[in-house]
Amino acid sequence: MANLALPFLFLLIRQIVIVFSPTIRTLSFMGFCVFVASGLNFDVDSYLKSSPFKARSIFRKGDIPAKDNPERQSRPDSGFVVLVSSEEGQGLSAQVKTAMKFLAKHEKELDRLKLRGVDNMLLDFGVELGDEIEHAEYLPPELLVVMARFGMGLVFSAIRIPRG
Asked: Which of 65, 80, 81, 95 matches a 20 to 30 Å C-alpha distance to 102?
């Protein structure tokens, strides 16, 4: 089953690379990784009462997010965000190790989330756009296999931090 999910993850990662490639910017990993879980029929408040997760942020179906939402469309889902890694200046390999520990520690809880109405889970690695022409990072197959087991998505959130 995990073998079937690997090509999907490869395509997802390939699409991310294509999105970033035209910018010809380097990606510097800022040392944070978050786990996000959401669902169209997920009762986030009820779940978090008995959850081991300490939510950094909670969003609810019907909320109107202010950021990047000029049409003021309401959220179709409910969910939460958990900080997985927050070490400043930590490279991707260290973030991946921390994420692997997080996934192993919460394996049963990730399965429980699906039973409680979560239909979308992802890991989001924070990256800073730099000025180098090329930069490569490696995601080990072990991470991809574990993410595929839970049907988990992968995101690289890129931002530009003003310098000077």
From this structure: 65
And the tokens for 81?
A: 């965000």
The amino acid occupying position 34 is V
Q: Which two tokens stand for residue 70?
A: 């000029």
CA distance 46 to 79: 11
26-78 per-position pLDDT tens digit: 444 456 899 999 999 999 999 999 999 999 999 999 888 777 767 788 889 99
pLDDT at 12 over 50: no
Residue by residue, what is the 3-state secondary structure of 19-32?
HHHHHCCCEEEEEE
32 vs 30: CA distance, rounded Å: 6
pTM here is 0.76
Kindly report the length of the chain: 164
d(CA 86, CA 33): 7
